[in-house]
Automatic annotation (TrEMBL):
Taxonomic lineage of the native organism: Bacteria, Pseudomonadati, Pseudomonadota, Betaproteobacteria, Burkholderiales
Enzyme Commission identifier(s): 4.2.1.10
Catalytic class of the enzyme: lyase
Pathway the protein takes part in: Metabolic intermediate biosynthesis; chorismate biosynthesis; chorismate from D-erythrose 4-phosphate and phosphoenolpyruvate: step 3/7
Name of the encoding gene: aroQ
Top-level division of the source organism's lineage: Bacteria
Purpose: Catalyzes a trans-dehydration via an enolate intermediate.
Quaternary assembly: Homododecamer.
Reaction catalyzed: 3-dehydroquinate = 3-dehydroshikimate + H2O
UniProt protein name: 3-dehydroquinate dehydratase
Species assigned in the record: Diaphorobacter limosus
Annotated binding of substrate, by residue: N80, H86, D93, I107, S108, R117
């Protein structure tokens, strides 16, 4: 049975490539999706790749991933919640409620940035936290999922 990897992206990640390229690089979200597609193909995973600026959509997609997890069909969830990392109890509760295996991902090293970015509601329920590898972190996270 082929397992699925969900890669979910939060607010403003649709602006990759043009938003603060000195922090996030010049690759676009489409480039990130291609990296994820290639990483999933290496491991025989199916990819679900999505982005939303709306917290509720991310919660709904985590619930969707949770149903696959309950059915034994989910390899894991890679979540770049962006600013919601630091504010969203709703995303925390969705992950806790579904039990999805989570990799929390950040393109930049959030600990080398503003103090408010140092706190994450998600880290405590994540199996792994990745930051600072740029967009290559997405492929590394998928490679990590293949090891679980």
């Amino acid at each position: 049975m082929t397992k699925t990897v969900y890669v979910l992206n939060g607010p403003n990640l649709n602006l990759l490539g043009t938003r603060e390229p000195q922090v996030y690089g010049s690759q676009t979200l489409a480039d990130v999706e291609q990296l994820c597609t290639e990483a999933c193909a290496r491991h025989g995973f199916t990819l679900v790749f999505r982005q939303s600026n709306h917290e509720g959509a991310l919660v709904d997609w985590i619930h969707e991933a949770g149903r696959l997890h309950a059915a034994g069909q989910l390899a894991g969830l890679v979540l770049n919640a962006a600013a919601y990392t630091h504010t969203s109890v709703a995303l925390l509760d969705a992950v806790k409620g579904t039990g999805v295996p989570l990799v929390e991902l950040h393109i930049s090293n959030v600990h080398a940035r503003e103090a408010f970015r140092h706190h994450s509601y998600l880290s405590g329920v994540a199996r792994a936290v990745m930051c600072g590898f740029g967009v290559q972190g997405y492929a590394l996270a998928i490679d990590g999922l293949a090891q679980w």
